[in-house]
Specification:
By secondary structure, this protein is mainly beta. The protein has two domains: 93 residues, Immunoglobulins (Immunoglobulin-like, Sandwich), CATH 2.60.40.10; 89 residues, Sandwich (Immunoglobulin-like), CATH 2.60.40. It is 4% helix and 29% strand. It is built from one helix and 15 strands. Strands 4-3-6-7 form a four-stranded antiparallel sheet, with no helix packed on it. A hairpin with a 5-residue loop joins β12 and β13. It is globular, with a radius of gyration of 19 Å. The N and C termini lie far apart (44 Å). Bound molecules: 2-acetamido-2-deoxy-beta-D-glucopyranose (3 copies). One 2-acetamido-2-deoxy-beta-D-glucopyranose binds next to loops.
Length: 260
């Protein structure tokens, strides 16, 4: 009887109570080292994907920020790396363990503070994705509606993979069914976005050269039917961003608690 009782209680817990999360250990600065620590218990190895958001702040709107993945070493619960982003730009951090993309949560938009070091980027050279992908219908992702994602197979290495990153929300891997070729397009797959309308969604593409090597595109998910939604459908949920405390403006004030 006792076992039955505790099982019932456990069943009432939210399905998506993450077993672990992360904190920024210091404020991110231009070309400075950024350190992150895992809180709680996940299944190592851990990794963090740093995704630029918002505009460039450099003259001529030159974009120097690349999506970067940082692997934690072995079973380590802390990592430190140089953040090669200019001051006053923003990014989100998506932390994962071996169970899946985004399992450790996603921060809201974090602001890079200024420093005296500008040696980590070339302000005159625009970064380019290593390959391009397209979506159909172009330029929109609607709730529960099919979206085709396709690419030129001669320009990729291996099979591309895609992630949906939701600032301050629950990021996910885009499920990739069987690949197909559509006339006048290229190789790709059809995906039904189980993401609620109004959610800010970054679609991140990459191939064997690394996650994000095809860059990212930002969408506000459009209206659609409810056929694909459940309690577990990802959406940005202000109030539960990961990352602990971090600057959300150039004055260094603010924390992640306000959401994306
Ligand atoms: C950043 O980290 C690297 C490698 O750990 C170290 O050599 C360097 O001194 C650090 N830079 C600063 C400004 O702390
Ligand atoms: C990070 O780990 C992945 C495997 O999870 C590996 O493919 C990738 O090369 C690693 N990246 C670096 C910079 O070591
Ligand atoms: C996938 O999407 C394309 C383009 O919208 C469409 O022509 C094709 O019929 C779809 N395939 C499936 C299996 O739904």
């Amino acid at each position: 009887m006792r076992a039955f009782t505790s099982l019932s209680a456990a069943a009432l817990l939210p399905v998506f109570a993450a077993a672990f999360s992360f904190n920024f250990d210091n404020s991110p600065t231009q070309c400075g080292n950024l350190s992150l620590s895992i809180t709680g218990t996940g299944t190592p190895p851990y990794r963090v994907l740093i995704i630029p958001v918002g505009p460039s702040t450099l003259p001529g709107n030159i974009e120097v920020r690349k999506i970067t993945q940082q692997n934690f070493t072995g079973e380590s619960t802390q990592t430190s790396f140089q953040l090669k982003f200019p001051s006053n730009t923003q990014f989100i951090a998506v932390v994962s363990d071996s169970t899946g993309f985004g399992s450790g949560g996603t921060s809201g938009a974090v602001t890079v503070l200024s420093s005296n070091d500008a040696s980590c980027f070339d302000p005159h050279t625009q970064v380019q994705p290593l390959f391009a992908y397209s979506i159909v219908p172009a330029g929109v992702i609607n709730q529960c509606a099919p979206t085709r994602i396709w690419w030129d197979p001669t320009l990729v290495q291996g099979t591309p993979t895609f992630q949906g990153a939701i600032p301050g929300g629950q990021s996910f891997s885009v499920p990739e069914g069987a690949l197909s070729t559509v006339p006048d397009q290229g190789l790709g797959f059809n995906w039904t976005a189980s993401v609620r309308a109004g959610t800010t969604l970054l679609l991140v593409g990459g191939d064997d050269r690394g996650p994000g090597t095809a860059g990212s595109s930002v969408f506000i998910v459009g209206q659609g039917d409810n056929s694909c939604l459940s309690d577990q459908s990802p959406s940005s949920t202000p109030g539960s961003p990961a990352g602990g405390s971090y600057p959300t403006s150039t004055s260094g004030s603010g924390t992640g608690s306000g959401g994306g």
